[in-house]
């Protein structure tokens, strides 16, 4: 009997012991998303950094020509890249770093970029190359944009029904759109917006696609629509103006929204037709181009978007 207890004693001791946790010695993986190697910058921009860790990233920063920047700890990891004191037409080096909660630090590869000698005043261009306007889509749709600039592309943002859904900093500029959560036989709008290294922007033409009718009756699958009556495309406006838009639906438009430069400016539930309201443009009076468009909704959840117009506000 005693012999039996002697055999069991080592097992009992092991069960009562607490084993130390395995120490995390793996540093985060870090990549500089922008600027990319060879980028030409002519204005202050945000450096964008991707950082991943098997546990948790606690801090991200970069070194510009060896000088450490401020740090951030929230996704997306973006830190201002101020070029005002940098020499023009020479190479500059940026390296990102990230630390996890155990204190492990990971470093990115060096990225070399150039500061332009003159300010970039030429807008980039962007178009949606996939899917095509009028196409029927289903499943995961790879939305692809072609963006061009005489110096460098900073980023491309993708919009579904006027809502920003994704951002790409590397060629090819794309976003995977999951259509599973969208109603059967409904139309949706897609467009892209691009920024270049001088913070100039451009917006692609809007395209319309239909989500494939996967199940059951389609019901009301007709999108409402909007026609901007005033202001006119390409016009120059000042002070407070009266905006007018005509609204259409096979049943009724239940909500209309007015967007300026992609931001919601005004909205109305069960709006009158035409919907007319005052818009004070003075907060945006900078002599630059601005974009406007409308989103409209019906009771079945169908969404339509007007044509995107550009105009100048003085």
- Calculate Rg over CA atoms: 27 Å
Judged by helices, strands and strand pairing, the structural class is mainly beta
Number of strands: 27
Tell me the CATH superfamily of the largest domain.
Answer: Immunoglobulins
Distance between the termini: 99 Å
Beta strand %: over 45%
Order of helices and strands: HEEEEEEEEEEEEEEEEEEEEEEEEEEE
How would you explain this protein's 3D organization?
The chain is mainly beta and 314 residues long. The chain has 3 domains: 87 residues, Immunoglobulins (Immunoglobulin-like, Sandwich), CATH 2.60.40; 96 residues, Sandwich (Immunoglobulin-like), CATH 2.60.40; 95 residues, Sandwich (Immunoglobulin-like). It has 1 helix and 27 strands. Strands 2, 4, 5, 7, 8 and 9 form a 6-stranded mixed β-sheet that branches. Strands 11, 13, 14, 16, 17 and 18 form a 6-stranded mixed β-sheet that branches. Strands 20, 22, 23, 25, 26 and 27 form a 6-stranded mixed β-sheet that branches. A hairpin with a 2-residue loop joins strand 22 and strand 23. The chain is globular and about 70 Å long.
